User: What shape does this take?
Amino acid sequence: MNELLQLLLNRNSAHRLCEPGPSAAELKEMVKAAIRAPDHAWIRPWRFLAIQGERREALGDVLESALVARNSDADARAREKARKSSFRAPLVLVAITRLSEHPKVPLLEQRMSAACAAHAILLAAQALDYGGVWRTGDAAFDRRVMTELGLCANEEITGFLYLGTRDGPAKMIPSLDPDDFLGHW
Assistant: This one.
């Protein structure tokens, strides 16, 4: 079987990630793959924000603060989980959709393009022997988090991509029948 097709067929999320994370050169290669996402009218509706090293602690503070702002009754366990979530991987890559009014490209299509770019990051990570997982949750939709991360008013978080070395074996994924998802008209 074609090596590239094999990579696509075996991609799955890695929920446990450890050092090392991608190097700066590898991250650039991943972004090169991402910017090949479908992009009607070449408006480039995506960008990425890398958070690693000690900056993950600052991200954890932002996530905890946003949790408390959303839910003042958040207990210590929930607050700690929010604060430590930025340490799930050596690299947190925030995938961002940059929305622009355009007569031929609806906002939904721009969001889909950014999602394709984020998925390309995960595929490129796997091609470079890294694991990754895409997470959202309430923080991804929280304008406070977006503001703290420096997003503009026309930008939103598509997802948090956690990238690093897979810690342990890949999880078994069920074999699905393509006929269950493919129709003919």
About this structure: Helices lie at 3-10, 24-34, 55-70, 76-84, 107-127, 143-148.
